[in-house]
Amino acid sequence: MNSIILIPARMGSSRLPGKPLAEIAGLPMIAQVVKRGRQARLGPVLVAAAEEEIAKAVRAAGGEAVLTDPALPSGSDRIAAALAQYDPEGRYDVIINLQGDLPVIDPGDIRRCARALEETDADIATLAAPVTSAEEEASPNVVKAIAPLAEHGIALAEDFRREVEPGAGPYFHHVGIYAYRRGALERFVALPPSRRETQRKLEQMRALDNGMRIAVARVAQAPFGVDTQEDLVRARRILQGEGGES
Hints:
2 domains, 246 residues, single chain
């Protein structure tokens, strides 16, 4: 596989405005995510930026970025547009969509997602970790992956839900990182939103509803995303001893 990591980023976060540029351990958060991508050693890391100020911050930190239309409706559309601009020759056949608000993700988990695609015939691969509490199980903000995952296993996704029947699991906390075969990404963004996608506000339902196969790889724990000021403080505390070097 010839892979590339793409990180969609935009300034318009309702809960933490301007969060891609929030400082963490001497770098903007988006640059910390670029570092995690580089540490995965899977190929080039490219930020798909909705605004010039994000692209400038990435380049100032030594990364690569391309500008995309701010009106694009989703991160998937943004990375597809960036890929078409950056690689019109089609050199890269596996595209890893790494979310721009995961500054403390384990690079090994990024590699795990790529391996899940390589080791299966799925169109898309993603990650999930065991749900560990009743509160996590009950929270609609925690998307649950429904898949027959044995320990350290990989399985095809059966469903993704926000709300599940209590105690009927095991359920797995979905981690929003995806590895796409290039043709699958191009097909996915060309499809209209499906009924279940709209109802559940879960983009991955579009893939399942159109017969695309999603491999789910089990990881030990779900990384937290930075959505609030409290999350930002936590990320700073975790990374404060690391410094800003690449």
